[in-house]
Amino acid sequence: CDRLYPVYRALVQNALSIPDASLDQLPFEAQAGESDPELFRDACPKLILYKLMNSFINDITAHQIEFMLSDILTPQPKKTIQIVSVLVDFWEHVKFREERTNQIFRKFDERAERRELLLNKLTELKGKSEKKRSEKKGKDHLTSQKREQLQQLTEEMTKLKVDSVSIDETLSL
C-alpha cells in the first residue's frame, strides 16, 4: 500500500497535470460535512487518488479494467502489474503523440517563417518595381519634353531657312 500510493500519485500528477494540493484536499462541498477532520486526514488523499485513478483507468481502457480502492490499499501483484502496464503504455503513447505533434508544429513554424520571408521579399520587389516604373515614367516624360524641344527647334530652323531663303531671294533681286 505504501509503495504503490506514491507511484500512482506521481503518475496521476504527471499524466493529468494535477497539482499536489488537489490530491490532498477534498472539494469544498465535501469538507462541509466532515464531523471529525482528523479521522479523514490520512484517508482523504487516498480516496481522491482512488477517484482519479478509477476515472483515468476507465477512460483509457474503455472500462475493460476496473480500478478499485483495494488496488491502492491492498494491491495484488497480478492486477498491479496489469494496471502499471496500462499506465506505462498510455504514457508511451502520449509521449509518442507529443513528439509527433511537436514535429508537426516545428514544420508549421518553419513554413510560416519561410512564408514571411517570401512575403517580405515580394513586398521589397514590388517596391523596387514601382520605383523603376516611376523612374521610367520620369525618363519618358523627360524624353517627350526633349522631343518636343527638338521638334520646336527643328520647326524654328526650318522657319529660319525659309526666312533665310526669302532674304536671299530678296537680296538677289
Automatic annotation (TrEMBL):
Gene3D superfamilies: Ncd80 complex, Nuf2 subunit (1.10.418.60)
Domain of life from the UniProt record: Eukaryota
Pfam families (UniProt xref): Nuf2
Keywords: Cell cycle, Cell division, Centromere, Chromosome, Coiled coil, Mitosis
Region Disordered, residue ranges: 128-149
Subcellular location: Chromosome, Centromere
Record has Coiled coil as a keyword: yes
Domain Kinetochore protein Nuf2 N-terminal: residue ranges: 4-108
GO biological process per UniProt: cell division
Major site of localization recorded for this protein: nucleus
Record-given protein name: Kinetochore protein Nuf2 N-terminal domain-containing protein
Organism: Plectus sambesii
